[in-house]
Specification:
alpha+beta, 5-stranded mixed beta sheet, single chain
């Protein structure tokens, strides 16, 4: 698959997943906003009902008070009215029971007149009572308007009544949540509050003015908060949480898939580079050996001892070169297996490094350079596999020569020191072409090769430093690199001492 195709698929899938995620988030926000609006509407409706009931309670209080006074005042009037009625009835009975026939018609006239007078008198009494009750109501209304605000708010709206009304109204409106409340005056001073009333912000407080007809300087406000409001709000959208979780999971799988696709693409490119490099590395010694073998078939070559020695030397050198390249390929494949083993022994790091330097000196001097050894570690005893430790030092020196600058003779320096009583530090430095910072992060990866610009004679498989890192890790140590372009490179190895 082409890299451009991978990028197109990546962009399309990313847009689709991000769009789906954005829609879910927007839907969740709208659900939360709607739930908040419903919650606020329910609470404000309940608070208004509580305020109305408290006003009704106050009206009832003044009515009961004035009616009690009115009952005392009218008790005497009722008794007098009752006596007056009895006397009139007695007169009527006396008149009706007169047995004098001569007086019967005048008695009937008097009786009708008395009945009419009695009815009118009672009408006057009822009219007076009505007017008094009307004036009583007016007095109650005036009293409420003029004197109700003089009563303490604790009496007009005691905490138990407010709590009971709040609870019943909220439950009636379908909101069964614990709440806390407080009564505050016009300066926001708390008149009284419940023990748990401690709002985090003003946005969490729902307010309702109590007794709105009171003078402004005497008005009080009922404030209510709900400690579990957020849980109630988000309980309506919790069903979206699994959907979001699966979306994020899908996004993670998508990113991982894209990452694997790019890694596979990169590995494919590395594989092609590896095959090309291996072909070139193997082609040169094989060609040399083939030419030398053909020369051996020539009788003149076989008859010349010097020529025969030269041809056999070429075959021997090229065979060694070919074997060295094959071993490089096999070194990492061997230690990628879980059952790979090493023969760890007590070794003198200074002595091993000195032997490698003596062997490698001729190769450095061939390019007009020098190799310096400052083996100053007082305690050089380490626990390593001798062959692989020697290969580690050899690979670092070989890289230093391979990545030399064409215009400057190679200068290599190998030092050993004891940074502390438990470790030895081995440093291999050169004055070569150096590396960029982005290359320093990848040089220990398998098959990675630093770009060498126009230096076409730098060949290899990209396995040398990967092998070095693998060996140092198996020895229980660490390795790091420091480098600047055209300033050279420095590899610092830290290994534990043998105890």
């Amino acid at each position: 698959m082409k890299r451009s195709t991978i990028w197109i698929l990546t962009v399309v899938m990313a847009i689709a997943l991000l769009g789906l995620l954005a829609m879910q988030i927007v839907y969740m926000e709208k659900m939360v906003d709607m739930r908040n609006s419903q919650f606020s509407e329910i609470v404000m409706r309940s608070l208004y009902s509580v305020s109305t009931m408290l006003e009704q309670n106050e009206t009832k209080y003044f009515l009961d008070k004035d009616l009690a006074e009115a009952e005392q005042m009218y008790s005497g009037i009722s008794e007098n009215s009752f006596s007056f009625g009895e006397s009139k009835e007695a007169n009527i009975d006396t008149t009706l029971n007169t047995e004098d026939p001569a007086n019967l018609r005048p008695a009937n006239r008097n009786t009708l007149k008395d009945l009419n007078d009695s009815y009118q008198h009672k009408q006057e009494i009822l009219r007076g009572q009505f007017l008094y009750q009307k004036s009583l109501l007016y007095e109650v209304i005036l009293t409420i308007l003029n004197h109700s605000s003089d009563r303490p708010i604790q009496e007009r709206a005691d905490s138990a009544t407010v709590a009971s009304y709040l609870r019943s109204e909220l439950e009636f409106n379908g909101l069964s949540l614990p709440f806390e409340f407080a009564i505050v005056n016009r300066t926001n001073g708390v008149v009284y509050k419940t023990s748990g009333y401690s709002p985090m912000s003003q946005a969490d407080v729902y307010s309702q003015v109590l007794f709105p007809n009171d003078p402004k300087n005497k008005r009080n406000t009922l404030n209510v908060t709900f400690p579990n409001k957020s849980d109630y709000i988000f309980s309506s959208v919790k069903f979206l949480v699994p959907s979001l979780a699966f979306t994020f999971l899908l996004l993670g799988v998508f990113l991982y898939t894209i990452s694997v696709a790019f890694k596979q693409k990169k590995l494919s490119e590395i594989k092609n580079d590896f095959i090309n490099n291996m072909t070139h590395e193997f082609k040169t010694p094989i060609s040399s050996i083939s030419i030398a073998a053909q020369m051996l078939n020539d009788d003149s070559v076989r008859k010349s001892p010097e020529m025969l020695k030269h041809v056999s030397g070429v075959i021997n050198d090229e065979t060694k070169r070919l074997r060295f390249q094959v071993e490089k390929v096999l070194q990492l494949s061997l230690f990628d297996r879980k059952n790979a083993t090493m023969r760890l022994e007590e070794e003198d790091a200074n002595a091993n490094i000195y032997n490698v330097i003596n062997t490698f000196k001729l190769k450095v001097e061939k390019y007009g350079g020098h190799i310096n050894a400052n083996l100053d570690a007082e305690d050089p005893i380490i626990n390593v596999d001798r062959m692989h430790f020697t290969n580690v030092i050899f690979n670092l020196l070989d890289n230093a020569v391979k990545y030399r600058r064409e215009d400057v003779p190679p200068e290599l320096t190998v030092t050993t020191v004891n940074p502390d009583e438990d470790h030895i530090q081995i440093t291999v430095a050169d004055n070569g072409i150096g590396m960029k910072r982005e290359d320093l992060k990848k040089i220990f990866e398998k098959f990675y090769r630093v770009s060498t610009g126009n230096l076409h004679d730098v060949k290899g498989f990209g396995l040398g430093l990967a092998y070095v890192h693998k060996m140092i890790d198996l020895f229980g140590g660490s390795i790091r690199a420091e480098s600047e372009v055209n300033q050279g490179s420095k590899f610092i190895i830290t290994l534990p001492l043998y105890k």
